[in-house]
Amino acid sequence: MGMSGGASGASGGGRRGRRGGRNRGGVISEINVTPLVDVMLVLLIIFMVAAPMLTVGVPIDLPETQAKAMNSDTQPITVSVNTDGQIYLQETPIAIDEIVPKLQAIATTGYNERIYVRGDTAAAYGVVMKVMARISAAGYKNIGLVTLQETDK
After folding, report:
1. Residue spans of beta strands (DSSP E) within the chain
2. Is the pLDDT of residue 12 over 50?
């Protein structure tokens, strides 16, 4: 009788003790997902707000014209010439001899790719024309000059 009482007590205590023992001193192998989701959402919001601020182009003082803005569905390739005559492909400095091979490497639509040339108002006219001549000689036909809209002063 003493043994049967101990056996029933052990099995009853075993059920409670097993779950209670895991919470008291055992290793918990469950992950609470709610804080993880909260942290991920906060990081997502931070990156969504910060990402547009990280896109910095080459600082160029563009000339102003009365031409209307062009509508484009895709992001064009931009070649820039700053006041010192340094040439940039997108935001990367590049030598004038490397323009055509780099354009051929990144052009997704081949020779129909839209290429914008941005020249600073103080940049040498000859450097901008050399860049445009190289791009045109390579076979690209959609070349445009980027300017700012004229403002009434």
Report:
1. 64-65, 77-81, 87-89, 92-94, 115-119, 143-145, 148-149
2. no
